[in-house]
Amino acid sequence: xxxxxxVLRELNLYPLWVRxxxxxxxxxxAATPGHAEQNGMDAPAGKGRELPVxxxxxxxxxxxxxxCTACKLRAGCTQTVFGVGDEKADWLFVxxxxxxxxxxxxxxxxxxxxxxxxxxLAAIRLKRGxxxxxxxxxxxxxxxxxTPDADEIAQCLPYLQRQIELxxxxxxxxxxxxxxxxxxxxxxxxxxxxGKMYDYRSTPMIITYHPAYLLRSxxxxxxxxxxxxxxxxxxxxxxxxxxxxx
Length: 246
Ligand code: URA
Prior knowledge:
Layout: H1 3-10, H2 58-66, H3 73-76, E1 84-85, E2 91-95, H4 100-105, H5 112-123, E3 132-136, H6 150-167, E4 171-175, H7 177-184, H8 190-193, E5 197-200, E6 203-208, H9 211-216, H10 221-238
Parallel strand pairs: 2-3, 2-4, 4-6
Antiparallel strand pairs: 1-3, 5-6
Helix pairs in contact: 1-5
The protein binds uracil.
Uracil (URA) binds near residues 97 and 212.
């Protein structure tokens, strides 16, 4: 068995699954996330001279996140988990929030779900840190890994929005329902959201299952594989030179 086959076997995808050949159309109605109007201002009262998050460069943004106490999550976590990878990546993967391992290490997706994410990346010939950036909707671990509350997401989302502006990825892959609904600005079952292309503030986006969910529900790895194939197709189309016909 060659390396690619071994990777697919690890994902429970070998030898059953074939690449999708059709790219689903871009739905226009889903294009505008409800959070799109957030202004990214994070200056609390009494700190009026702080630059808005939307004007920060990488070092200032990292420092702002490190010092953030805007929601109740910071008091219960070890450290903030900013994000990791190539700051000019074409690919941006967005999860929900740090878990126990990430809280200790200060890096997203380093536990069991992270191992599966690395395998998913390898299945489409990607590698953490190489043209790939990985971030989360919230930067602090929610207690007992609960889903982040709406107010926590609202406080933290401007940081991710600024990361996206600085990275300028060609494609966002939203991992799981929390990432999907935060970026889309509407709530829906993940099964109804996956398998399509979206537009997040002019960046193409796809939605797929969260690796932690896939660890619990391996039967859905096949659908995740379809989603990754859709992502590759979208990336390939998006990477064509502007004057390339077809
Ligand atoms: N789950 C996430 O959503 N993010 C991580 O960083 C780790 C697990």
